[in-house]
């Protein structure tokens, strides 16, 4: 009854099924790995935001990269804004996906070192002209914000274009700004969260978004269900083929028996 499994068609179907099962299992494992990676990153964000604020000098230093565990940590800094050395970062969007600029202002600490502060987003009708940027508070002030790592082309995908209009940059990078300012600049930068600017401009950056880890978990389960469905589907097809062949064979035998039973013509 099952000799048809040795036919070319069924050998191919069986081989494809045998190939699909481990492939789908492996895809499910990959999605589960992605789920754990994203969950771990989300937990780092949660822990960083919940941690007690510390002075930025405790976590950052010139030439020192901001680690994954330090990213999004709330830090404070006391000093003054140096608006004469202020620049804007091109092609940045706000919460409404409007394209404009981020305002990057050097913040001079009490010991003379500098930390870069992203004061937020401002609109810009033209990418060739310097936008209107509200001034920060004058004199000594204490700010609070999230510690962020330096931006690089490799990590962000943003090309560091050359020949830009004056006081415009593409990436927030402490090493590049240290060369421009010819001064010691702490690694990374602060995304300011307080005090809020007068008039709401620049627009402060929103809370960091979390990755959709449950989606990867759902994909993993989906792949594993597909893997389980393949042998079930193969079995159903085999049984249906066997029944059809058995029915065809029975029909042929009945037809032969009927012909044998007919009386001979007179």
UniProtKB/TrEMBL annotation:
Membrane topology: Multi-pass membrane protein
Segments crossing the lipid bilayer: 217-238
Main location: membrane
Record keyword Cell membrane present: yes
InterPro entries: Surf1/Shy1, Surf1/Surf4
Subcellular location: Cell membrane; Membrane
Keyword entries, A-Z: Cell membrane, Membrane, Transmembrane, Transmembrane helix
Recorded superkingdom: Bacteria
Pfam entry (one): SURF1
Family: Belongs to the SURF1 family.
Protein name per its UniProtKB record: SURF1-like protein
Organism: Streptomyces thermocarboxydovorans
């Amino acid at each position: 009854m099952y000799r048809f499994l040795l036919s070319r068609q069924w050998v191919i179907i069986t081989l494809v099924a045998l190939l699909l099962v481990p492939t789908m299992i492996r895809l499910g494992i990959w999605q589960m790995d992605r789920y754990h990676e994203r969950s771990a990153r989300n937990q780092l964000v949660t822990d960083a935001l919940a941690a007690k604020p510390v002075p930025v000098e405790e976590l950052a230093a010139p030439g020192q990269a901001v680690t994954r565990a330090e990213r999004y940590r709330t830090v404070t800094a006391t000093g003054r804004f140096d608006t004469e050395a202020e620049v804007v970062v091109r092609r940045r969007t706000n919460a409404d996906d409007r394209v404009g600029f981020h305002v990057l202002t050097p913040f001079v600490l009490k010991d003379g070192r500098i930390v870069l502060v992203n004061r937020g987003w401002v609109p810009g009708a033209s990418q060739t002209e310097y936008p209107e940027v509200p001034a920060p508070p004058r004199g000594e002030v204490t700010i609070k914000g999230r510690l962020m790592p330096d931006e690089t082309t490799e990590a962000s995908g943003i090309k560091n274009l050359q020949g830009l209009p004056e006081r415009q940059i593409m990436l927030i990078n402490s090493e590049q700004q240290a060369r421009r300012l010819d001064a010691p600049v702490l690694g990374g930068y602060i995304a300011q969260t307080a005090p809020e600017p007068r008039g709401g401009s620049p627009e402060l950056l929103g809370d960091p978004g979390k990755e959709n880890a449950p989606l990867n978990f759902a994909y993993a389960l989906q792949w594993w269900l597909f893997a389980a469905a393949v042998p079930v589907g193969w079995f159903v097809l085999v049984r249906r083929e066997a029944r059809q062949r058995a029915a065809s064979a029975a029909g042929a035998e009945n037809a032969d028996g009927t012909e044998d039973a007919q009386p001979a013509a007179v």
